[in-house]
Write a structure and sequence with these properties.
The protein is an alpha/beta fold. 42% of the residues lie in helices and 18% in strands. It contains eight helices and seven strands. The protein has a seven-stranded mixed β-sheet with strand order 3-2-1-4-5-7-6, sandwiched between helices. Helix 1 packs across helix 6 and helix 2 packs antiparallel against helix 6. The two termini are 17 Å apart.
Length: 233
């Protein structure tokens, strides 16, 4: 990762998506002194198999879980935009909200989800694809152009140009990050999402297996991988 990357914004659909998709990488970057912030688009209000659970209770539970998980990795800035889980739409309202976060935090790099449908069932969640598509549209051209959402400029949120985007869940990744030293932190953060984990030893085994598979070609014990998009300066 280039030394010019000092600020990273992670834009994902649900609480726990960041920990699953890039938790080890985030922990590594925090240890390297980079500033990381999260934008979580939905409130996770549908993600429960407990028939006694209500959406109202679940929203509060998942928000607290996400804040605890982020702090575990060293991330202090978390914005919960609160759109309904499973119903994320690519609308002007949502694009404006994400654009505002980009202009406010002014990241060098954005990490987001893959907007393409893939053979990976988890990565192809509708909200994940929509979140990735929204994030990319906000990077270019909406956050960059002062005539896009002029009301944001009126609020003091000046245009900002992002230099790079990393996509999680890509089938042909170009960047492989060694997370061998931060794997335990990734797992500790995932364990904070108690409402989502069910049989956590089973989840842990799956996460370790996947990260080991990604790292093996590079000789890493564990890794996370991303497709890299470079935006011309």
């Amino acid at each position: 990762m280039a030394n010019t990357i000092t600020r990273v914004l992670v834009v994902v659909a649900h609480p726990d998506d960041a920990e699953f998709g890039c938790g080890g990488t985030v922990a590594k970057w925090v240890k390297e002194g980079r500033e990381i912030a999260y934008v979580i688009l939905t409130n996770g209000d549908k993600g429960s198999a407990d028939r006694r659970m209500t959406s109202e209770r679940l929203v509060k539970i998942r928000a607290e879980e996400q804040l605890t998980a982020a702090r575990t990795l060293g991330v202090e800035q978390v914005e919960l935009l609160g759109y309904p889980d499973g119903e994320l739409e690519d609308t002007r309202e949502v694009r404006r909200a994400v654009t505002a976060q980009i202009r406010r935090f002014r990241p060098d790099l954005i990490v987001t989800q893959n907007p393409a449908r893939t053979s990976n069932f988890y990565a192809s969640h509708r909200d994940h694809r929509t979140a990735g598509s929204i994030a990319l549209d906000c990077v270019y051209p909406l956050a960059r152009d002062h005539l896009s959402f002029p009301e944001l400029v009126a609020q003091g949120l000046e245009p900002h140009k992002v230099h790079e985007v990393y996509l999680m869940g890509a089938e042909n990744p170009e960047v492989v990050v060694d997370i061998s030293d931060t794997m335990e932190l990734k797992l500790k953060a995932l364990a904070c999402h108690t409402s989502q984990m069910g049989d956590f030893p089973q989840v842990e085994a799956w996460v370790r297996e996947r990260a080991a598979h990604v790292g093996k070609p590079k000789g890493y014990a564990y890794a996370e991988a991303f497709k890299r998009i470079t935006i011309p300066r």
